[in-house]
Structures are given as C-alpha cells and as structure tokens.
Amino acid sequence: MLLQHDSSKCHGSCAVPHVELHPSDRPAVTLSHVCMERNGRTVLDDANLTVHKGDFVAITGPNGGGKTTMLRIILGLLTPTSGTVRLDVGRNSIGYLPQKNSVDSHFPISVREVVASGLLGVRDMDAAARLRAVDETLRRIEMEDMADRPIGRLSGGQLQRTLLGRAIVSHPALLVLDEPLSYIDKHFESHIYTLLAGMAPHCTILLVSHEMSAIASMANRHILVDRTVSECPAHHHYIHTECL
C-alpha cells in the first residue's frame, strides 16, 4: 500500500515537515496473540505487533475494527481475553491522548490543571520545574491565553489541544495518540505536524486515525487494524491531501 502525497496542492501552512526517525532493534511494545471479546463479539483476534523504540507508527482501519481497543490494551486500561502484552517503557513514561468523546468536559478543571495532570506520575521534579514545564507546554499548544479557563467553556478543538498538552508535557518515551486531528482546524493541524516532527527523534509514537492524513507521510510504519493486525510493507507512506 503506497499512498501518494501530492505536494503541489499544498500551500504554506499545510506543508508536512521532514521527520528524523531513529528506530532501534529494541522493542518498546510487544503484542503476542492478543484476543479481545466483548459482549459476545470478537474485537481483536490473534493480534501480533512489535513496535520498536523510535518507531512512528500510523494506525488505520475501519470503525469498529479494534484500533482504540488495541491502544487501551497496550496502555493497560483493558485486559485482553487472551494473549500477552509487554511494555519496555515505564508506565510513567507514556503520554496518552484519548478520543475527545471519552473525556467529561463538564468536570470542573481548568486548562492548566489538565495539562499539569500529565506530570502526576513524574518523580524528581520540583514545583518550579513543573510550573515551567506546564507553561512551556501551554505555549506549544497555543493555549497560554486560556490557561485558567474551565474545560467546559472550550470548543472541541481547544479541548483537543488541551488533552494533547497533557499527553506531551512530560516528554514521554511512548506517545499514544487516538484521533489527534479530531475537531482541529487547519492552522493547528499544521502545528501538530511540527510538534510531532520535533518529538519523533526522541520518543516512540503510536498514532491512530480513521481517515489517514498527511501524518502518514511522517510515519515509518503503517499498521492496519481490522480485528487482526497487518502491516503495509512499503518503506515510505505518502497520501494525497486536499489543502485549502
């Protein structure tokens, strides 16, 4: 599967940055013969996947194919019916952006507090360092002017940016993103490309998207999840985009 990106239709902010990747032979995530059944339905069947440290993995597949379930199993949020999952990064070294619809936007918490919650598992960081990390992340996600706003007063795109900030504030070894472009406008979509390009040389990225975007051209691996796991054998992945 080779998806062609037509750069002639991109203008200015939609250009995808070059990504420096340094995958190693050491595994970060290993799924072995993972099966998941829920409510009498097989969601995943004999799923096998090894993600190496430094990989940038783009994950696609149909609705209901098991993409989010697989991520939640990797994160330890779900226990598979059978099979094994091994993580070779610490649980506190993982950043996770869930789908927006899994977040209670009415919970009385501010943008700053959400971002800061991404540091709860981080040890050996004093209060001043935590404050600096949160302030820097608020700038990176362009939410510093809304730092004290309750998340219930955010637009869908603003909430998505806030959740992204929570995922990246700790500079995680493993970054797991489930539909990160949902609700995001074109300007910040381009900004996400830049953020990921800067993080990719230093962490392992798993990114799920129902509709593959230009992010596919940044990844070194393309995984399809449709009850089981398969991988595109191409070394590079490009996709046609219609840029405004």
- Give the overall average pLDDT: 86
The assigned structural class equals alpha/beta
- Report the major sheet: 6 strands, mixed
CATH class of the largest domain: Alpha Beta
List unreliable stretches of 5+ residues: 1-13, 239-244
Q: What is the CATH topology assignment of the largest domain?
A: Rossmann fold
CATH superfamily of the largest domain: P-loop containing nucleotide triphosphate hydrolases
Could you walk me through the main structural features you see in this protein, from its secondary elements to its overall organization?
This protein has 244 residues and is of the alpha/beta class. Helices cover 23% and strands 24% of the residues. The chain has 2 domains: 1-89 and 173-244, P-loop containing nucleotide triphosphate hydrolases (Rossmann fold); 110-171, no CATH class. The protein has helices at residues 67-74, 111-116, 127-140, 156-168, 186-199, and strands at 27-38, 41-52, 56-60, 82-87, 94-97, 174-178, 204-208, 221-226, 228-231. The strands form 2 sheets. The protein has a 6-stranded mixed beta sheet with strand order 5-6-7-3-8-9. A hairpin with a 1-residue loop joins strand 8 (221-226) and strand 9 (228-231).
